[in-house]
Design a protein that fits this description.
The protein has 246 residues and is an alpha/beta fold. It has helices at 8-18, 26-35, 53-62, 73-78, 117-127, 148-152, 156-160, 166-174, 194-200, 207-211, 214-230; strands at 43-47, 65-70, 85-89, 104-108, 134-138, 180-191, 236-245.
Length: 246
């Protein structure tokens, strides 16, 4: 998979292209609330926090404290650190947090970037309190047909086919004593309209789009612009999976 360098400029480009306004994530708030008991006295460990979209969301939704762990300096600099959001340099295989210090862990579109899943799962087991859930938001092979990028750029499904399957992920977590609790597809509003979605596409900030040939990307953009011209104001929904283990 094509790597992306997240210096300050790259992180800002990622934020502009990939972050979703909170009002577009209402279904995700409901899905998280169904599987995690979060409030002002709880802590969420946000692993691979990126520019902090979900770190901010978790605090605003539930009043919880968030510990955002992110290896890229440019991304960390973009996270709004403060009393409610602590930002730490680290990665999934070596979490810089005390034992049994978190009430839930969140991995948002990061699982496919983790090279050693067994090491990451062991660290999550160490960092979480007994019974605390791991909430994974990701695309999985064979389950990505409602992802907008797959819809307009079908070649990205080939990229996702190289990700770990749900069964492979569950097996790794089972080795550390986690059990699968739920798997569901959850929608989010990717953009207010197809036109705005098309305008916001950035190949430089999307590893799946970078991995497909140039002609496939151009063909996808042509399809997207054509549909946007027909329905320019129609809200745009996309779907990703939520896998819950505890």
């Amino acid at each position: 998979m094509a790597e992306i360098g997240y210096d300050s400029a790259g992180a800002e480009a990622y934020r502009r292209a990939r972050e979703i306004p909170l009002d577009g994530l209402a279904h995700w708030r409901e899905a998280v609330a169904a599987h995690a008991e979060l409030g002002p006295d709880t802590t969420v460990l946000d692993v691979g926090a990126g520019t902090g979209m979900f770190a901010v969301a978790f605090h605003r939704w539930f009043g919880t404290r968030v510990v955002a762990v992110e290896p890229a300096r440019g991304m960390r600099a973009a996270i709004p650190a403060g009393p409610a959001i602590e930002v730490l340099d680290g990665h999934a295989g070596e979490l810089p947090v005390p034992d049994a210090s978190a009430d839930a862990a969140w991995l948002g579109s990061v699982l496919h970037h983790v090279p050693d899943l067994d090491a990451a799962v062991a660290e999550l087991r160490r960092a979480l309190r007994p019974g605390a859930p791991v909430l994974i938001r990701n695309a999985f092979p064979g389950r990505c047909e409602r992802d907008l990028r797959v819809r307009y750029f079908p070649g990205t499904a080939r990229v996702i086919d190289g990700y770990r399957t749900v069964d492979q992920v569950c097996a790794a977590f089972a080795r550390a004593g986690f059990a699968r609790v739920a798997l569901q597809a959850v929608p989010h509003r990717a953009a207010p309209s197809l036109r705005q979605f098309a305008e916001g596409i950035s190949r430089e900030t999307d590893s799946k789009l970078r991995a497909i040939p140039d002609q496939e990307f151009e063909d996808g953009m042509a399809r997207l612009r054509a549909e946007a011209a027909v329905a320019p104001q129609e809200p745009v929904m996309s779907w990703l999976d939520l896998l819950v283990l505890a």
